[in-house]
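Table S2 (text version). Query chain:
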Amino acid sequence: MAYDDRYPLKDYLNSLNYSKEYLMGDDPGWEKNYSPYVINKCMSHHMDTIMYANEMNQYSALDKQLQYDFYIHIVRSRKRFSPWGKKQKMNDLEVVKQYYGYSNEKARQALSILTPDQITFITNKLNRGGKK
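Corresponding structure-token output:
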């Protein structure tokens, strides 16, 4: 599904969590661009909504409208914010790339072969001192 700037994720989450403004009324674009998976993922980051997200995961075949109605009526109004999880940078990958002059793909292959002792040796070899 293509992303549409007129229907941002933050508006869905704000209406479900805090403002309780019903978005699914007149404009069919709100329902069309509603992503149940992403909303469930966002709701699962909070202690008070994780069980509701689990319930919606069990009934994943529900219409988008029904899921939205469930959340808007059952979740208590509260400011909820959690940063989006991002992929962590692999420090060992950078060390192997620098030591051997490999690309990302070759460095990943080398990491699967190297032992932790060898990676520690390479890290110590590249250590130039100073504060990190």
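Notes on Table S2: Helices lie at 9-19, 28-32, 36-43, 50-58, 64-74, 91-100, 104-113, 116-126. Residues 9-19 form the longest helix (11 residues).
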